[in-house]
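REQUEST ID: PR-0412
SUBMITTED BY: lab tech R.K.
PRIORITY: routine
TASK: structure prediction, single protein chain
INPUT:
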Amino acid sequence: MLDVFLVTILTGAVRSGVSVLYATLGEIIAERAGVVNLGVEGCMLMGACVGFVTEVITANTLLAILMAAVAGGLLALVHAFLSLSRGANQLASGLATMFFGLGLSGLLGAPYVKNNITGLNPVSIPLLGNLPMLGPILFQHDLLTYFAILLAPTIWALLMFTRWGLALRAVGERPTVAFAAGLSPLRLQYSAVILGGVLAGLGGAQLSLAYTHTWVEGMTGGRGFIAVALVIFSMWDPLKALVGAGLFGGAVAFQFQLQAMGVPISPFILDMFPYVVTLLVLLVWGQTGKRAMPEGLKSVLAGGVQGGVAAVTANLPRAAAAE
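STATUS: complete
OUTPUT:
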């Protein structure tokens, strides 16, 4: 009995945590470039909505996933334009795009709330899917889940061992130094924020196309904000993001099991459980995370305007000419 309960919780942890994992990986990339995007929630909602609507209209799941990624990337582009090109405060811009995504997804998705889709169903990996305990936990999931698990070490390797990753991290630490080295901080930050939005859109697509097979307004339920919190927990490390997403997913699966067992606890308290667990983990882990924070984020979180990065790098050639 205990084995069945444990397998159910761990399997649910993987399924529930994947959408958050996508968003966390995307936000890690953006923040490594020195940009905070609090609009992750909106990007996820746009991905979930557009992916679901595309699936209903075309019955083409691959196209639905692609359109979800595009939708998330386009909303992130709005945030990048406001904060990087127009000098808006990153935190205010992120919240504005989040509310815009919440409203737009609700408007676009309203006619499709009662629709049913086939979407993505679990695919058992031959041989591995039949392993006792490990089979259902790791090897009986949808394709977006497998992709997310492989994506985390891939992004880690790209950030650590490629020229692109080195350039991105340099911009996130000291954009003026990166500019002096011949890099384009603005271009790198734009690409990082858009890529982060694309991954958040994929997280939303996994939620609507694979996890729930439905669309409901505001269905992400704060997962975008959890992703931003898990970036701190993971210390901006994609591999540790796997652990953070698993903890959140496990808390979600655990509260579902408690509800199914009829535990005499208010369902409102049970719904709070995953978020309380995340907050407690951050409370314990927060100080450790500060030490790993990219230097470029400190001015943003202190209330600075990150759009100034573009202004600073734009003024460097003038300063050099004056000398």
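NOTES: Strands lie at 123-124, 140-141.
REVIEWED BY: pending
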